[in-house]
Specification:
Elements lengths: L2 H9 L7 E6 L5 H4 L5 H10 L33 H9 L4 E6 L12 H20 L5 E6 L5 H11 L5 E7 L12 H10 L3 E4 L20 H6 L1 H14 L2 H4 L5 E4 L6 H15 L10 H8 E4 L9 H10 L2 H4 E2 L21 H16 L11
Parallel strand pairs: 1-2, 2-3, 3-4, 4-5, 5-6, 6-7, 7-8
Helix pairs in contact: 5-6, 6-7
Keywords: Hydrolase, Lyase
Protein name: TIM-barrel fold metal-dependent hydrolase
Pfam families: Amidohydro_2
Length: about 375
Amino acid sequence: MEATEIKQREKRTKMKRSIIDVDIHHKTELEDIKPYLPRAYRDQIDLWGWRLPGSLWLNGGVKVGQMADSTPPDGSFPGSNLEFMRKQLLDPYNIEYGVLTGTEYFCQASPDADYAAALCSAINDFTCDHWLANESRLKGSVFIPKQDPLLSAKEIRRIGSHPDMVQVIVASGAEKPYGNRFYHPIYEACVEQDLPFTIHVLLEGLGINAPNTGAGYVSYYPEYRACRPQVMAAHLASFIYEGVFEKFPTLKVVLQEAGVFWLAPFLWKMDEDWKALRFQTPWVKKKPSEYFFSNVRVSSQPLEPTPNMEIFRQLMNAVNASETVMFCSDYPHWDFDSPLMAFPKLEDDLWERVFYQNAAELYGLPARKAQKEE
């Protein structure tokens, strides 16, 4: 659909009910977080630079993957200007709460875990001081040096009790699948602080992380995007078959920005394999799909288009969308999903669950305030 047509359709429609957006990428410029670092690291950066891995593939949009119209009037990087974010996203789409998911994940692929821990603390403190303190609608995500679970748990306990921090966030690129017991100290701290553990796509094949597919590295960005479900599927199977949800029954996990409908056949496959092979993992006491429905949530962007509404409804039902799916826009990235255009028309109860209640329940957010008049 042409961008001009989308703009025209949006102009004719107003968001009457407020919504929750669970994926807003505020920009944490490295130079902005530098003052939050210990002097030893500031001196090292001055001498040798940031020493962080970078992307291997070309993205879409402008300025490395951003919407063409998302650059603030002052010329700063998209997602870095709070006032412009208010005018372009929070106000026009009647966003009651938005979860900030940041940009500087690259420290999670560094071999220097102490440096990564310092960077994560700096990102978290900067977010609290410059974003959460200045906009009550925004909530934060705790960045952690996932390559060292003990340092990660320390950071979760340090900043996780902040009233506006609502989840712990990591990139999907990792050294080991996230169900591995190596990560248990992280989940113990998440449960202690009552914070979901969110896996956001990024960093496969970078730094110390494993390749982005089981067959090795891909050549092109569209190929990389097509393989995102493969990585998330590996993490999900790991959580279930390693028994994480039996050891930490209240832990909630969010799969972010890898699509939604691929989950339906994957859950069917896991259930079938579990029936035949469950003697190998006797600690997995329920069908894999039951753990998914009780402990896992998924964000909507990018929602796969279906050939017709009948298939759409069947797949939404198959993933139990009324309990598991949460809306996210992915602002300000080039593949931003407008709340007005992301879904075909939903039944009112389902719309309410996807656009507000599922996220409110997961993150412990208040009920919606009075509706705005059209």
